[in-house]
Amino acid sequence: xxxxxxxxxxxxxxxxxxxxxxxxxxxxxxxxxxxxxxxxxxxxxxxxxxxxxxxxxxxxxxxxxxxxxxxxxxxxxxxxxxxxxxxxxxxxxxxxxxxxxxxxxxxxxxxxxxxxxxxxxx
Length: 122
Fold this sequence. Notes:
Layout: H1 2-16, E1 21-30, E2 33-42, E3 51-57, E4 63-72, E5 80-86, E6 89-96, E7 99-109, E8 112-121
Antiparallel strand pairs: 1-2, 1-8, 2-3, 3-4, 4-5, 5-6, 6-7, 7-8
């Protein structure tokens, strides 16, 4: 009986460790890009480096796959965005402060803005 109780307790603790980890897939639909964000982050974690970026250019059909992380946006403790590095380029997705479903994409090269887009995140 004690053994069975220990096994069940271990099983419950083991399985409960995965309940806060969830694969989340959201899609940014902008004017120039469609981007699928795939996140396997603990929903309570402020920092996570397990985020994937799958982008399609609506202009030329170009594809880009990157690994990235969540970023805490200044000014609000509960607002997070995403950052993805690709060589000298930094891709950032951040929500509009007035509408959580409206997002901005900024692409920087050596801290200079080289591209931007905006759209709905679903």
